[in-house]
Amino acid sequence: MSINWYPGHMKKTESLLKEQLQLVDLVLELLDARIPYSSSNPKLANLLQHKKRIVVLNKVDLADEHMNKLWQVYFQQQGLEVIQVNATRSGINRLVQESVDKVFKEKAAQLKARGRNSRPARVMVVGIPNVGKSTLINQLAGKGSAKTGDKPGVTRGKQWIRVHDRIELLDTPGILWPKFEDAATGIRLAQTGAIRDEIVDQQELAWNLLQTLQTHYPLLLESRYGGDVTQPLIDYIDSIGQARGCLLKAGEIDYQRIARILLEEFRSGKLGRITLEKPLDEVTA
Ligand SMILES: Nc1nc2c(ncn2[C@@H]2O[C@H](COP(=O)(O)OP(=O)(O)OP(=O)(O)O)[C@@H](O)[C@H]2O)c(=O)[nH]1
User: Fold this and answer.
1) 50, 66, 82, 221: which has the fewest Cβ within 10 Å?
2) Same domain, yes or no: 43 and 118
3) What's the pLDDT at 155?
4) pLDDT of residue 180
5) Pocket lining: 59 vs ligand 1, CB cutoff 6 Å
6) Is 13 in the pocket of ligand 1 (CB under 6 A)?
7) Strand, coil or helix: what is 182?
């Protein structure tokens, strides 16, 4: 999260990723289920070449259930294996194992045909900042998992974690830089916390979010903040300010505080399960 994505840094990240990719059979590509489009990396498919990937829609507990299903179908229609997870919860190992087995089957058969012993699939987790990479790795590693230690011929310092008997997971995730396509993508990345707050105006983020929610999730807004959700944005902001007592000394509304509350309550899921992008037009806003 503390990375500034200037071009030199992106280049370095890319070459590190290329190095890591050489070590694995397939990748788990983590996407934020609230913004599957914006949280994907435009260059990943290219970097993978023929290497397989499994799309892991993470943070599904924060995203709209119906939209999770739509996104699952969307990726499946592209011939990709997709799983939905909440990486903070235990019990996802079997799901990951089944998907890896499915995708690795072909390669395992090739190894067998060449008279080579079957071996665990070598897997790594990749994704943009804050998407949940470390959380997923820790979850898959579990308490009892053994680090398998450095492998000969492998970059020194790289550790492999044995997950069950059929997956070896690289303990360091592949970091991907976020999209810099357009302002709307940048706003959604910042709203979900993938890029740092300080570089984007909090109020701009919050009011943009509020507008999206007025259109797509009015009932969630109403149950959290009350008031008439259909009134113009600026009036609704004031009504939230009054309801939450966000007032400055002179009785003026403290807009900065309202913005902070909105963003925090969206990010933590207090506002409800919300997805900001849908397949096809890919953007809810
Ligand atoms: N609600 C919810 N929170 C999650 C989930 N996965 C991760 N998180 C939270 O998201 C935040 C970021 O998770 P990390 O695992 O640190 O993300 P990362 O991709 O390793 O982040 P960087 O180190 O910045 O690249 C943490 O506060 C996690 O607890 C999930 O499925 N659901």
Assistant:
1) 50
2) yes
3) 44
4) 82
5) yes
6) no
7) coil
The ipTM value here is 0.99
pLDDT tens, residue by residue, 54-100: 999 999 999 999 999 999 999 999 999 999 999 999 889 999 999 99
Question: Does 205 lie in the same domain as 134?
Answer: no
Residue 199 clears pLDDT 80, i.e. is over it: no
Q: Ligand 1 mean position to 175 CA, how many Å?
A: 13
**Given this model, what pLDDT does residue 179 score?**
86
186 is a domain residue: no
Structural domain includes residue 279:
no
Closest Cα to residue 263, out of 192, 211, 215?
Answer: 192
Residue 39 falls inside a structural domain: yes
For residue 219, what is the domain's CATH number?
1.10.1580.10
H or E segment at 27?
strand 26-32
What span, in angstroms and rounded, lies between the C-alpha atoms of 194 and 199? 12
**Average pLDDT rounded to a whole number, residues 34-39:** 96
Is the distance from CB of 56 to CB of 135 less than 8 angstroms?
no
State yes or no: pLDDT of 134 exceeds 80.
yes
Q: Is residue 210 within 8 Å of 233, Cβ to Cβ? A: yes
Q: What's the gap in Å between 88 CA and the centre of ligand 1? A: 8
- Cβ(138) – ligand 1 distance below 6 Å: no
Residue 135's H or E segment, with its range, is helix 133-141
Please give the structure tokens belonging to residue 2: 């503390």
- Pocket lining: 135 vs ligand 1, CB cutoff 6 Å: yes
Q: Hey, what are 270's tokens?
A: 């207090």
What integer pLDDT is reported at residue 112 of this predicted model?
85
Same domain, 86 and 139: yes
pTM of the model: 0.91
Domain match, 169 and 242 both: no
Whether residue 143 is found in the same domain as residue 219: no
